[in-house]
């Protein structure tokens, strides 16, 4: 008999081989916590020996629900998103969901492709960290989705979605106020995309701190860039070419700040001494960087955990007004300021 004509192994075959009921085998493939580890090991061993493959899409169609959740982020190399993913994964997997990951690399086209793919795979819900320049089409598409969707990190105007984020304005204001209290009157703001809601909110906090201190905002020292280490290097090179350089720099993110530190050194200046440098996010590397980076904690893991719990709540209780959960940031002072 040809291999291709062999009958596929069923869950009933697995249950019989393992000496358990089909209902028990079904609970195990759905990651139910109700089954003992001994029984789970026995059934998983039978699956491996028989070559059983669980058809999750078919199971979703039968039950008219899905235990698969999609999460879409912009940049897997950014430690902030890695930490956010930890919060999402740990929370959803404890509940019994399987998580599918999509990475957009901040491309609108890639974001649309991934959304389409996840909808085709019949995910039960989506957590989306939108790209910087998400178009109106993305908003319209989210609003027409027949599955729950949570926005995280960045908001999209006009979207009828729940949102979990951080008070970026308050965080930026406390960061710039710290620099002003240290005696700095010329504080630059570097990095990030101007069209992104996260940049706009940081700019509001930056402006407010200057205004309350009676310092006039100088647009020439507000330089946007790709929110990466390379973007930070480019932005600070532009900044240091100006005739009246600032004494302090507030950066869009810690990654941007790392690039700024590099660019400051390239110019023969000492970060933390000749120029104070403040980041945003408090990713793990910030503490061990040299000099250790002053920053604002935006609680990435907690953001992921909160978004995951909110999505589960929306899946199990679909009704109710959309929620906007804003976490409060925390100032972390280290040697770079």
From TrEMBL:
Q: Which UniProt keywords apply?
A: DNA-binding, Transcription, Transcription regulation
Which Pfam families does the entry link to? LacI (PF00356), Peripla_BP_1 (PF00532)
User: What SUPFAM superfamilies does this protein's entry cite?
Assistant: lambda repressor-like DNA-binding domains (SSF47413), Periplasmic binding protein-like I (SSF53822)
Where in this chain does the record put each HTH lacI-type domain?
9-63
Which Gene3D superfamilies does the entry mention?
3.40.50.2300, lambda repressor-like DNA-binding domains
Q: Which GO terms describe its molecular function?
A: DNA-binding transcription factor activity; transcription cis-regulatory region binding
This chain's protein is named Substrate-binding domain-containing protein
- What is the originating organism of this protein? Niallia endozanthoxylica
């Amino acid at each position: 008999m040809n291999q291709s004509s062999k009958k596929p192994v069923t869950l009933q075959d697995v249950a019989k081989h393992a000496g358990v009921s089909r209902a028990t085998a079904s609970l195990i493939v759905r990651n139910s916590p109700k089954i003992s580890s001994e029984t789970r090991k026995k059934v998983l061993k039978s699956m491996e020996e028989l070559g059983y493959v669980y058809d999750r899409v078919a199971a979703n169609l039968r039950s008219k629900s899905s235990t698969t959740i999609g999460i879409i982020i912009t940049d897997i190399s950014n430690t902030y998103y890695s930490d956010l993913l930890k919060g999402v994964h740990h929370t959803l997997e404890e509940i019994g969901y399987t998580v599918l990951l999509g990475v957009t690399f901040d491309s609108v086209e890639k974001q649309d492709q991934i959304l389409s793919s996840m909808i085709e795979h019949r995910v039960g819900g989506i957590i989306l960290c939108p790209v910087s320049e998400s178009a109106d089409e993305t908003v319209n598409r989210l609003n027409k989705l027949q599955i729950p969707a949570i926005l995280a990190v960045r908001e999209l105007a006009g979207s009828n979605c729940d949102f979990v984020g951080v008070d970026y304005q308050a965080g930026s204001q406390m960061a710039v106020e710290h620099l002003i209290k240290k005696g700095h009157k010329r504080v630059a703001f570097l990095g990030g995309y101007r069209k992104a809601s996260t940049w706009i909110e940081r700019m509001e906090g930056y402006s407010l701190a200057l205004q309350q201190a009676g310092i006039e905002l100088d647009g020439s020292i507000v330089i946007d860039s790709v929110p990466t280490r390379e973007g930070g290097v480019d932005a600070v090179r532009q900044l240091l070419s100006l005739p009246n350089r600032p004494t302090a720099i507030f950066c869009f993110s810690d990654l941007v700040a790392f690039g700024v530190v590099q660019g400051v050194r390239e110019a023969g200046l000492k970060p933390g001494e000749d120029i104070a440098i403040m980041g945003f996010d408090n990713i793990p590397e910030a503490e061990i960087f040299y000099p250790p980076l002053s920053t604002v904690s935006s609680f990435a893991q907690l953001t992921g955990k909160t978004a995951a719990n909110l999505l589960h709540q929306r899946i199990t209780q679909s009704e109710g007004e959309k929620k906007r959960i804003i976490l409060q940031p925390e100032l972390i002072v280290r040697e770079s300021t």
